[in-house]
Amino acid sequence: MHFILTWAVFTVTAVVLGWSSFRAIRNEPVILKQLWVALAAEVLLLAQAVLAAVLLLGEKHAVDGPLFWGYQVTILLFLPIAGLVAFAERTKWSSVVLAGAAITVAVLQWRLGVIWG
Amino acid sequence: MSDPLDSRKPKDLPTGSGLALALLYGLFAIAASARALVQITRDFSDAPVAYSLSALAAAVYIIATAALLKRAHRVALFAVAFEMLGVLVVGSLSLLHPEYFPRATVWSGFGAGYGWLPLLLPILGLAWLRYNWNRGPHGPESN
Known about the structure:
heterodimer, A: 117 residues, B: 143 residues, mainly alpha, 63% helix, 0% strand
Protein backbone atom coordinates (compact mmCIF):
# COMPACT_ATOMS: atom_id res chain seq x y z
CA MET A 1 0.00 0.00 0.00
CA HIS A 2 2.84 2.34 0.77
CA PHE A 3 4.35 2.67 -2.66
CA ILE A 4 2.07 5.31 -4.20
CA LEU A 5 1.35 7.10 -0.92
CA THR A 6 5.03 7.17 -0.02
CA TRP A 7 5.97 8.82 -3.31
CA ALA A 8 3.07 11.25 -3.00
CA VAL A 9 4.29 12.20 0.49
CA PHE A 10 7.89 12.52 -0.76
CA THR A 11 6.75 14.78 -3.63
CA VAL A 12 4.64 17.10 -1.49
CA THR A 13 7.23 17.33 1.32
CA ALA A 14 9.91 18.07 -1.31
CA VAL A 15 7.79 21.02 -2.50
CA VAL A 16 7.38 22.22 1.12
CA LEU A 17 11.12 21.78 1.74
CA GLY A 18 12.23 23.56 -1.44
CA TRP A 19 9.79 26.43 -1.03
CA SER A 20 10.48 27.05 2.67
CA SER A 21 14.28 26.74 2.16
CA PHE A 22 14.05 29.33 -0.63
CA ARG A 23 12.12 31.72 1.62
CA ALA A 24 14.46 31.07 4.56
CA ILE A 25 17.48 32.00 2.42
CA ARG A 26 15.67 35.19 1.37
CA ASN A 27 14.95 36.06 5.04
CA GLU A 28 11.20 35.63 4.55
CA PRO A 29 8.66 33.97 6.89
CA VAL A 30 6.21 31.20 5.97
CA ILE A 31 3.15 32.37 4.00
CA LEU A 32 -0.34 30.89 4.11
CA LYS A 33 -0.07 29.26 0.65
CA GLN A 34 2.79 27.11 1.98
CA LEU A 35 0.59 25.94 4.84
CA TRP A 36 -2.02 24.73 2.32
CA VAL A 37 0.67 22.56 0.71
CA ALA A 38 1.75 21.31 4.14
CA LEU A 39 -1.92 20.54 4.87
CA ALA A 40 -2.05 18.41 1.69
CA ALA A 41 0.91 16.40 3.01
CA GLU A 42 -0.82 16.04 6.37
CA VAL A 43 -4.01 14.76 4.67
CA LEU A 44 -1.93 12.15 2.79
CA LEU A 45 -0.36 11.05 6.08
CA LEU A 46 -3.80 10.77 7.73
CA ALA A 47 -5.11 8.77 4.75
CA GLN A 48 -2.12 6.49 5.10
CA ALA A 49 -2.89 5.96 8.81
CA VAL A 50 -6.52 5.07 8.03
CA LEU A 51 -5.53 2.74 5.18
CA ALA A 52 -2.92 1.02 7.38
CA ALA A 53 -5.52 0.54 10.14
CA VAL A 54 -7.98 -0.99 7.66
CA LEU A 55 -5.37 -3.35 6.17
CA LEU A 56 -4.05 -4.41 9.58
CA LEU A 57 -7.51 -4.91 11.12
CA GLY A 58 -8.53 -6.94 8.04
CA GLU A 59 -5.36 -8.97 8.57
CA LYS A 60 -4.28 -8.33 4.99
CA HIS A 61 -0.83 -7.46 6.27
CA ALA A 62 1.28 -7.99 9.39
CA VAL A 63 3.73 -5.52 10.89
CA ASP A 64 5.58 -4.84 14.13
CA GLY A 65 2.57 -3.01 15.57
CA PRO A 66 4.00 -0.76 18.32
CA LEU A 67 6.93 0.25 16.11
CA PHE A 68 4.73 1.03 13.10
CA TRP A 69 2.12 2.99 15.09
CA GLY A 70 4.85 4.81 17.03
CA TYR A 71 6.18 6.19 13.75
CA GLN A 72 2.75 6.64 12.14
CA VAL A 73 1.45 8.76 15.06
CA THR A 74 4.71 10.71 15.50
CA ILE A 75 4.89 11.65 11.80
CA LEU A 76 1.53 13.42 12.13
CA LEU A 77 2.90 15.88 14.73
CA PHE A 78 5.57 17.81 12.84
CA LEU A 79 3.68 19.74 10.15
CA PRO A 80 0.95 21.00 12.56
CA ILE A 81 3.66 22.20 14.99
CA ALA A 82 5.48 23.96 12.13
CA GLY A 83 2.10 25.48 11.19
CA LEU A 84 1.63 26.89 14.71
CA VAL A 85 5.17 28.27 14.61
CA ALA A 86 4.36 29.96 11.26
CA PHE A 87 1.59 31.94 12.99
CA ALA A 88 3.64 32.82 16.08
CA GLU A 89 7.04 33.50 14.53
CA ARG A 90 6.89 35.97 11.64
CA THR A 91 10.60 35.83 10.77
CA LYS A 92 12.70 33.60 8.52
CA TRP A 93 12.92 31.17 11.44
CA SER A 94 9.38 29.95 10.73
CA SER A 95 10.68 28.99 7.25
CA VAL A 96 13.63 27.16 8.83
CA VAL A 97 11.27 25.28 11.17
CA LEU A 98 8.93 24.31 8.28
CA ALA A 99 11.90 23.09 6.20
CA GLY A 100 13.08 21.01 9.18
CA ALA A 101 9.57 19.57 9.63
CA ALA A 102 9.46 18.60 5.92
CA ILE A 103 12.84 16.80 6.15
CA THR A 104 11.70 15.00 9.33
CA VAL A 105 8.45 13.85 7.72
CA ALA A 106 10.33 12.55 4.65
CA VAL A 107 12.83 10.60 6.80
CA LEU A 108 10.07 9.12 9.00
CA GLN A 109 8.03 8.21 5.89
CA TRP A 110 11.02 6.33 4.52
CA ARG A 111 11.39 4.50 7.86
CA LEU A 112 7.66 3.71 7.83
CA GLY A 113 8.02 2.13 4.39
CA VAL A 114 10.88 -0.07 5.64
CA ILE A 115 8.88 -1.10 8.74
CA TRP A 116 5.79 -1.86 6.64
CA GLY A 117 7.91 -4.14 4.50
CA MET B 1 -11.17 36.76 35.38
CA SER B 2 -7.65 35.55 34.79
CA ASP B 3 -7.13 32.01 33.65
CA PRO B 4 -3.93 30.01 34.25
CA LEU B 5 -3.61 29.82 30.46
CA ASP B 6 -3.25 33.61 30.29
CA SER B 7 0.13 33.50 32.00
CA ARG B 8 1.51 31.18 29.32
CA LYS B 9 1.52 33.75 26.58
CA PRO B 10 3.67 32.95 23.54
CA LYS B 11 6.01 35.77 24.52
CA ASP B 12 7.33 33.58 27.34
CA LEU B 13 8.67 31.19 24.72
CA PRO B 14 11.94 31.81 22.92
CA THR B 15 11.72 33.49 19.52
CA GLY B 16 13.62 33.21 16.26
CA SER B 17 16.71 31.02 16.29
CA GLY B 18 16.10 30.09 19.95
CA LEU B 19 12.69 28.62 19.08
CA ALA B 20 14.13 26.72 16.10
CA LEU B 21 16.95 25.31 18.28
CA ALA B 22 14.51 24.29 21.05
CA LEU B 23 12.32 22.49 18.49
CA LEU B 24 15.34 20.69 17.02
CA TYR B 25 16.23 19.52 20.54
CA GLY B 26 12.59 18.49 20.98
CA LEU B 27 12.85 16.35 17.86
CA PHE B 28 15.85 14.53 19.29
CA ALA B 29 14.15 14.23 22.69
CA ILE B 30 11.34 12.35 20.91
CA ALA B 31 13.70 10.25 18.76
CA ALA B 32 15.99 9.25 21.65
CA SER B 33 13.09 8.57 24.05
CA ALA B 34 11.30 6.37 21.53
CA ARG B 35 14.49 4.45 20.79
CA ALA B 36 15.26 3.96 24.50
CA LEU B 37 11.67 2.91 25.24
CA VAL B 38 11.66 0.26 22.50
CA GLN B 39 15.14 -1.04 23.39
CA ILE B 40 14.57 -1.21 27.16
CA THR B 41 11.08 -2.71 27.10
CA ARG B 42 11.88 -5.32 24.43
CA ASP B 43 15.33 -6.75 25.05
CA PHE B 44 17.13 -4.89 27.81
CA SER B 45 19.36 -7.88 28.63
CA ASP B 46 20.84 -7.87 25.10
CA ALA B 47 22.91 -4.76 25.73
CA PRO B 48 22.23 -3.16 29.13
CA VAL B 49 25.07 -0.62 28.82
CA ALA B 50 24.09 0.58 25.34
CA TYR B 51 20.40 0.72 26.26
CA SER B 52 21.07 2.60 29.51
CA LEU B 53 23.09 5.12 27.48
CA SER B 54 20.11 5.50 25.13
CA ALA B 55 17.94 6.36 28.13
CA LEU B 56 20.59 8.80 29.44
CA ALA B 57 20.80 10.50 26.04
CA ALA B 58 16.99 10.80 25.99
CA ALA B 59 17.00 12.41 29.46
CA VAL B 60 19.69 14.91 28.41
CA TYR B 61 17.74 15.91 25.29
CA ILE B 62 14.53 16.34 27.32
CA ILE B 63 16.30 18.56 29.89
CA ALA B 64 17.96 20.63 27.14
CA THR B 65 14.64 21.06 25.30
CA ALA B 66 12.80 22.15 28.45
CA ALA B 67 15.62 24.53 29.47
CA LEU B 68 15.75 26.14 26.02
CA LEU B 69 11.94 26.53 25.92
CA LYS B 70 11.97 28.13 29.39
CA ARG B 71 15.05 30.16 28.44
CA ALA B 72 16.90 28.74 31.46
CA HIS B 73 20.23 29.22 29.75
CA ARG B 74 22.41 28.04 32.62
CA VAL B 75 20.57 24.70 32.86
CA ALA B 76 20.71 24.46 29.06
CA LEU B 77 24.48 25.02 29.15
CA PHE B 78 24.98 22.12 31.59
CA ALA B 79 22.76 19.82 29.52
CA VAL B 80 24.36 20.75 26.18
CA ALA B 81 27.92 20.51 27.57
CA PHE B 82 27.11 17.07 29.01
CA GLU B 83 25.63 16.09 25.66
CA MET B 84 28.81 17.23 23.85
CA LEU B 85 30.89 15.13 26.26
CA GLY B 86 28.53 12.17 25.86
CA VAL B 87 28.54 12.13 22.07
CA LEU B 88 32.36 12.47 21.97
CA VAL B 89 33.02 9.75 24.59
CA VAL B 90 30.37 7.30 23.38
CA GLY B 91 31.22 8.01 19.73
CA SER B 92 34.93 7.33 20.31
CA LEU B 93 34.31 4.23 22.46
CA SER B 94 31.88 2.79 19.92
CA LEU B 95 34.62 2.95 17.27
CA LEU B 96 37.60 1.93 19.47
CA HIS B 97 35.79 -0.74 21.51
CA PRO B 98 32.74 -1.88 19.52
CA GLU B 99 32.46 -4.90 21.85
CA TYR B 100 31.10 -2.57 24.59
CA PHE B 101 28.19 -1.73 22.30
CA PRO B 102 26.58 -4.85 20.86
CA ARG B 103 23.61 -2.60 20.04
CA ALA B 104 23.65 0.99 18.80
CA THR B 105 22.78 4.10 20.82
CA VAL B 106 21.88 7.54 19.51
CA TRP B 107 25.50 8.58 20.10
CA SER B 108 27.21 5.53 18.50
CA GLY B 109 29.63 6.46 15.71
CA PHE B 110 29.11 10.15 16.65
CA GLY B 111 25.44 9.82 15.70
CA ALA B 112 26.10 8.38 12.22
CA GLY B 113 22.68 6.66 12.27
CA TYR B 114 21.04 10.09 12.56
CA GLY B 115 23.02 11.87 9.86
CA TRP B 116 25.65 12.99 12.42
CA LEU B 117 23.09 15.49 13.73
CA PRO B 118 23.75 14.31 17.34
CA LEU B 119 27.34 15.61 16.88
CA LEU B 120 26.26 18.86 15.20
CA LEU B 121 23.49 19.56 17.72
CA PRO B 122 25.65 20.30 20.82
CA ILE B 123 28.02 22.42 18.69
CA LEU B 124 25.01 24.45 17.50
CA GLY B 125 23.69 24.55 21.07
CA LEU B 126 26.95 25.79 22.59
CA ALA B 127 27.42 28.39 19.82
CA TRP B 128 23.85 29.61 20.27
CA LEU B 129 24.19 29.84 24.06
CA ARG B 130 27.51 31.69 23.69
CA TYR B 131 25.98 34.18 21.26
CA ASN B 132 22.76 34.68 23.26
CA TRP B 133 24.18 34.43 26.78
CA ASN B 134 23.32 37.99 27.87
CA ARG B 135 19.94 38.11 26.16
CA GLY B 136 17.96 35.55 28.16
CA PRO B 137 16.07 36.40 31.36
CA HIS B 138 18.24 33.95 33.30
CA GLY B 139 21.63 34.89 31.93
CA PRO B 140 24.50 35.95 34.19
CA GLU B 141 23.50 39.62 33.93
CA SER B 142 20.71 38.82 36.43
CA ASN B 143 23.29 38.12 39.15
